[in-house]
Amino acid sequence: MEFLSQTYVALRGPTGTPQTPEDTIGRLSDRLSPATLLADRRAAVLALKGLVRDWKQDVGDRALPGLLDVLSNDAEVDADIGKAVLETLNLLCDVEDTTPNSKELGLKHTNQVLANEKAVNTLFALLGYMAFYTRFASLQLISALLQNRRQVVQSYFLKSSAGPASVIAVLEDKREIIRNEAISMVQLLMLQSSDIQKVLAFEGAFEKLFNIVTQEGGIDGGIVAQGALSCVDTLLRFNSSNQSYFRETTFPQALCSLLFFPWKISDKDPAPQDFALQFWDEQKATNAALLLEIMGILVGSKGGNVQEIYTFTRCLTELGLASNAPTKLKSTALRLIPPNITVPLSEMTITPYLPVPETNGEEWDRLEPASALEVIVELALHGEFNGSDGGKQTKNSLELRTAAVAVFENFVRKEEIKLGILQALLPPEDDTEPPPTPPLIYALANTPSTTSALDPAVVLTTHIASILFSHLVRLSPQAKSLARAIKPALQPSEGSGLFVPADGTPTVPAPAADLDEDEPPQTLLQALSENLSLALLSRSRENVTVKESREWDRLVVGYLTLLSQWLWEDPGSVRDFLDAGGMSVLVEQINQVSEDDTLVPALCVYLLGICYEFNQEPGEITRTTLAPILNRLGVDTLVGRMLRIRDDDRFKSIGPDSIVLLYSGPVPSTGRKSDVNDKAEVWFDWAFVDFWKSNYYTIQRGFSTEPDQQSASTGQNVETSMLISSLRDVIQKQAQEIANLQQQLKQTSKTSGNEAALRDQVATLSSQLSAAEEKRKGVEKEQEDLLVLLDEMAVKRRGYKSQLREAGLDVSEDEEDDDADDE
Amino acid sequence: MSGLTWHYVFKFVITGDAAVGKSSLLVRLTDQRFLANPDPTLGVEFGSKLITIPGEDKIVKLQCWDTAGTESFRSITRSYYRGAAGCLLVYDVTSRKSFLNARTWLADVREHADPHVTCILVGNKVDLVEEPDGGGTPVLTSISAPGKHRRQVTKEEGESWAREEGLLFVEASAKSGQNVEEAFVRAACDILAKIRQGVFDDNRSPGVKLSKASSTNLVLEQEGSGRTCCF
Ligand SMILES: Nc1nc2c(ncn2[C@@H]2O[C@H](COP(=O)(O)OP(=O)(O)OP(=O)(O)O)[C@@H](O)[C@H]2O)c(=O)[nH]1
Ligand SMILES: [Mg+2]
What we know:
heterodimer, A: mainly alpha, Leucine-rich Repeat Variant, 4 domains, two-stranded antiparallel ribbon, 39 helices, B: alpha/beta, Rossmann fold, seven-stranded mixed β-sheet, 6 helices, 7 strands, globular, binds guanosine-5'-triphosphate, binds magnesium ion, ARM-like (chain A), golgi apparatus (chain A)
């Protein structure tokens, strides 16, 4: 300041008359000319800097070209003038200060600075100088220019030969302030420019950034580590060339080791405790989330090798399921498991932990190892830590549970996995005691309590179970037919998990064992229909509170969404549902609709529509039975009611990645406000919303189709369905044929062993035969000879007889007769 | 080969006029494929390949940056020369222009790259001008082969210019695969020789990296490829 006043004095004319600021600025600007002494130029720059605050526009108008000259000529030579000119330019380009028209002026000056590439080149060259203020102020000015006109700076940068190397150099600066500034500048510099991202990667940006992270203490590092990690993220996201390069390096391993996760781990190896149990604070969670995001980029893009994909998927799964990481971080981890998950979760062994109560999260119990799939289902159904916080329905806890649902959904996308899981849920074929009901099925089949107050935790479990189960049956005819055969025994399993633990938890005798022995056990579909009916009755009971009614609604929504997806295109299931009395339950709801109650009736109509549409199997309630009921309700009314769901926020605001909503129900007069603020809820998942939208029109048209007409969906697909049925025939025939051939093959192969023996036998037999033939011929001949002989003898005898007669001897007649008979 | 996946990492750049087949050479090297209609490269693309140096028992990881030949990317691609240990300077034997332009490319490389960079001049697309008899040296095909691509740069001409400039030289075809890996191997051999002579003492070239003594890399990659339990 003192210096300033000196300058003012110096500039005041000899007469002492005060000058206008314009005059002063004009004179100072003149002094920037290279003709003046360096010291004078320095003084002029400092004076101008002091004037910017109040005379930004004038300084800009008069002095900017001179300042830019000083920048390119003097800044390298003299650090002081360098600092001063950089700071002055910084002020001139500032768009956020308090001067009037700040933004406009800042941008105008920026444009002037960027009129050609000269200033930017100088700035990047200045980064190469070690002098603290030169580097620091250059970085600030570059950042400011990038903020204002990023693309221009980026294009100059790509043309400047010194640019990439000097940027890398500042990332190596040991002075923290410079490094921080460098990181934020680099962030801006490479934003949306894959060329710059590639150049920086080529120049070694990954190495430098990981060095920074390590020097800062890994994920325990502060905001600098965070900045460096987010730079790595930017370098990789949307940049496949950099991803390939990154995979070539050892940094993928570094990602793991920064989280204390081993790079090589087999399915059965437990994750190390150093990884599972760590001390977490907010900054560390932020850093870890960035690391996970980077893993997510690599694991979700093409080109990773099997090892890398396995390790990252495992790491994400472990952190999400079996660690003491903050809930939000766990959700992040699970969300990053790629949709096309290739790692079989059912074979991955996970060892979950449970906080020891009253230890404030400092002591943890290790649970029995279980398959990752079981743990995921458990987490989804009951929440973190085995449901010990089941009542908690905060945004974070619900995000975690729905993230687990999403992993499950992705995992069971493959038909064979779906079918495998359903197969395991079927009752045993032999007569053995049914195993304890898996929690998923238990949650669906268990009758909601109507005597005591409805527990929101139980409702949520059932609701999530219905979402999980929908993922198993949706759009898979085979899965649906397996699901129809599930007969829950309704014995809650002691263990956790989807399947029965191998060691066989002792089965508690079913409390409901007084069921009639002859009565076949209920199917899951029947149980669902009954639970639906019960819940629908309960929601509209007289004495139910608004809040409780909302919980019943949530339960109903769970049942209805599951049933809709299950019954769709599956006449067999429709038949089961109608036989279980489903129709009257739905109709009743639709009939007594009130103005402010739209969600549940809308879903009831949807399901009723499905029941009409796919009612194709013979039975008590046919399309012909249903049609008059629909007509009585009024087709237009029905359609109107069905479509009203689209106006409901709980349905409308669902997106692929956002299914957890902030609680919008009634606020209890007692509870603290903050409780409510934090409260969240789940009504629908995206898969259902998507399903609803894809199919509502078919249902809408179906309502107005006559019962004897082809239902709309099949009518539309007559050709397809004919094709399918003819193909099915062909397949059946072929299968039959194959079975026959196999049978034959079996027999032939069985006999073929004997063939040789038989052939021998045939040979001996035929030789025996021919021998016998020979013999027989011989015998025949002999006999013939004998006959001839006999004949001769007879002739002779006759001759002798007649001779004897002639000789007057007595000859017996009977012998004669005998002979005659013989003839 | 136990213990190590690679002994060295060499950074390579591939430069030359547009459409001479730079990307095709790289794809041939890394994927053993030939694309009939590759997109022109925008900026640069990365690809890598492990090669064994014959007779030396050394495994080298080549990290290649394939650059765009289009003029508008010139300033971007220049940034890559500085960090490279090797450079493939590519022209198309059926395009005289691409051969003449190689001079400009070389000047660029000389200006921006490490002075010890190893350059190999690659005359690409020889499959187009293959002499069916293969007898003797190829000559400039005259009008006698209408419709066929004509050779516009003889092998001798390429060879002699390379000799003048101190470049290695090879004629190759990304389409048939002929001499493609050889081109990279020969350049890598040359770099190795320079290393042995101490030209890059203390790892001074940014494009050459010695493998760390640790063996982690190999074990991992082997495990990776051999792993089946995941499916
Ligand atoms: N016959 C033949 N054609 C080739 C060969 N190599 C490349 N081509 C063809 O030449 C054309 C250009 O190939 P690119 O690999 O894209 O050329 P480039 O040098 O990468 O081009 P830019 O990326 O634009 O610089 C393509 O149509 C290729 O199929 C070769 O060895 N023989
Ligand atoms: Mg290319």
